[in-house]
Amino acid sequence: MTYQWNQNETVDLLKELVEVPSPSGYTMDVMSKISALLTQWNVEYKTTHKGAVIATIPGENQEQHRLLTAHVDTLGAMVKEIKPSGRLKLSLVGGFKFNAIEGENCLIHKADGSTVSGTILLHQTTVHVYKDAGTAERSADNMEVRLDEKAFSKDDVRNLGIEVGDFVSFQPRFEATSSGYIKSRHLDDKASTALVLQLVKHLSETKEQLPYTTHFYISNNEEIGYGGNASIPLETQEYIAVDMGAIGDGQESDEYTVSICAKDSSGPYHYGLTRHLIALAQTNSIDYKVDIYPYYGSDASAAISAGHDIKHALFGPGIEASHSYERTHIDSLKAAAALLHAYVLSPLVS
């Protein structure tokens, strides 16, 4: 059966996902949304103690399983300190630098579920006052949140209901251009999540028969290192992380192909399974690149580190400026979607 990938529907779903705040540790709302979609599509799923969602579609072979994962948690921050000035000091959640969020609008998520808006700025931002505006280190001590409220003291901030430990999410600024580019924060890894969910919807609606029972694991702690490392069914033999390709100097990955990762910081991925993905891309005329990511880890490598006896591999759309204001192209999403579909119909690697 030909996979009729719905480009517009995928982009719309991606927009919906990135607009639901979900920094690691604060993913309840987006997981509820995903659960609702799976219920709507009549797909069986379970929720783990950590809050991840695992959807399962039975295959002809119900003794040997495969698993695909994408993560929906994102970078974010937490309130570290309420300053005497009424501004907030942040503690970052995930692996990134303050320069990636300088000038970004944000939301502080209060304990009662409501939010207060603000902007993340260098304390010495204005060049009309501070000589070191351009040279000051973008660090936790120098960066702060300017609240969109009349708050001039710690008491003023606490009277707004803001406390140390509240989560902070960043405005995604999603935009799909007429030239096919998609710009937004948190394309890592909500782009892959949208692709995986669209595949699940296709399989549910068309009743296309899978050769093996397949689990679709939407994890919610990947950015802090332990998203998809537990609750893996014992029958699982192959584990695919669907996550972004890293673009930069010396890299093969780009915004127009699917990136297949041969090695990252954790070491090489399973050779046979990686070669299988490459062969599938070649056989199905899918544009791809093979790459090595120097500073990177995935849920698949986390599962290996946790001691699971699985074959693991990693592929996904190429994402420019990862962990900042990111960008990809519809061509990369299309290629990743095609490889996803080809993989779930393929034989297991012996």
TrEMBL record:
Family: Belongs to the peptidase M42 family.
Hydrolase among keywords: yes
InterPro entries registered for this protein in UniProt: Peptidase_M42 (IPR008007), Peptidase_M42_aminopept (IPR051464), Peptidase_M42_dom2 (IPR023367)
Protein name listed in UniProt: Peptidase M42 family protein
Cofactor(s), by name: a divalent metal cation
Domain of life: Bacteria
Catalytic residues (UniProt): 222
Short name of one Pfam family: Peptidase_M42
Cofactor: record remark: Binds 2 divalent metal cations per subunit.
Record keywords, A-Z: Aminopeptidase, Hydrolase, Metal-binding, Protease
Record: residues binding Zn(2+) 1: 71, 188, 243
Positions that bind Zn(2+) 2: 188, 223, 323
